[in-house]
């Protein structure tokens, strides 16, 4: 099996685990009153811990996939979590998946396949200087802070606040995802002791951890004020968009945009985003 094929398979496993984790965590977060301490309440709930295990397992497989393939291959496939979330959501809510929902699921699957076939994403550089990372991270930070601020406005409707927290969480998840690739690949050939010393003095590791923790907290905040249909579209779309932009701008990854390839890539991106939003609202 080629490295790209392996990264695709691993990304799909990650998407399945993310779907399980999000479904379990949303059920618990939605049951916490907004005046209560969110984290203090959640850590007492076993199902929330199961959801956290699903998220961590998903991240482990996602990191493995990133070690083998480009961000522009792995991240779009994480949107496939919606395909897995559809039957899981129906099971938890004791409902049936409609023909229209299965249709949107098929559209999303075709759009993802078309993006990978037509775009032919290619790997870029394994890392970039701090001066290249800084402007991109500042922009993402401003977006995350601004959308978090909107989410904290208690006078806004719950759906608007959930959407805002979701965008902030997705943006930080995107940063953590892209930073995972250079953190993993920069040290894979060095000795263990040298690896450990370099890793513990690497600013990227600490930014990755802070973004990951911040994103997980904001995700729970997004699940709290409104049903998951209000927040999951934002999280699901903001993460791959942020990661793809960082992968292209910072790590110089690319997709084919000439001729019919470019038309297919743009069309699959638009159609996939619409299908993902429809499914997330489910």
From TrEMBL:
Transmembrane segments: 63-90, 102-119, 131-153, 165-183, 203-218, 230-251, 257-280
UniProt cross-references to InterPro entries, sorted A to Z: EmrE-like (IPR037185)
Signal peptide start and end residues: 1-29
Transmembrane helix keyword on record: yes
Keywords, ordered alphabetically: Membrane, Signal, Transmembrane, Transmembrane helix
Transmembrane helix is among the record's keywords: yes
Record-linked Gene3D superfamilies: 1.10.3730.20
Protein name as catalogued: EamA domain-containing protein
Organism: Tsukamurella pseudospumae
């Amino acid at each position: 099996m080629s490295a790209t094929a392996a990264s695709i398979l691993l990304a799909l496993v990650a998407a399945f685990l993310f779907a399980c984790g999000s479904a379990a965590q949303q059920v618990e977060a939605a049951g916490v009153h907004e005046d209560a301490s969110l984290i203090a309440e959640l850590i007492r709930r076993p199902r929330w811990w199961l959801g956290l295990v699903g998220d961590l397992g998903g991240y482990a497989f996602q990191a493995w996939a990133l070690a083998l393939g480009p961000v522009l291959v792995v991240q779009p496939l994480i949107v496939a979590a919606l395909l897995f979330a559809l039957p899981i959501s129906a099971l938890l809510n004791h409902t049936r998946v409609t023909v229209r929902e299965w249709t949107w699921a098929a559209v999303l699957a075709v759009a993802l396949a078309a993006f990978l076939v037509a775009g032919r994403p290619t790997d870029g550089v394994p890392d970039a200087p701090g001066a290249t990372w800084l402007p991109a991270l500042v922009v993402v930070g401003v977006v995350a802070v601004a959308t978090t601020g909107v989410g904290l406005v208690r006078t806004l409707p719950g759906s608007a606040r959930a959407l805002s927290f979701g965008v902030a969480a997705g943006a930080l998840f995107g940063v953590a995802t892209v930073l995972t690739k250079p953190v993993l690949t920069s040290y894979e050939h060095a000795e263990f002791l040298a690896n450990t010393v370099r890793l513990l003095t690497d600013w990227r590791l600490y930014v990755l951890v802070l973004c990951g923790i911040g994103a997980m907290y904001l995700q729970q905040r997004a699940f709290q004020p409104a049903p998951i249909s209000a927040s999951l579209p934002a999280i699901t779309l903001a993460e791959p968009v942020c990661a793809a932009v960082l992968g292209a701008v910072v790590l110089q990854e690319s997709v084919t945009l000439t001729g019919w390839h470019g038309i297919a890539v743009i069309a699959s991106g638009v159609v996939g985003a619409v299908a993902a939003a429809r499914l997330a609202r489910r």
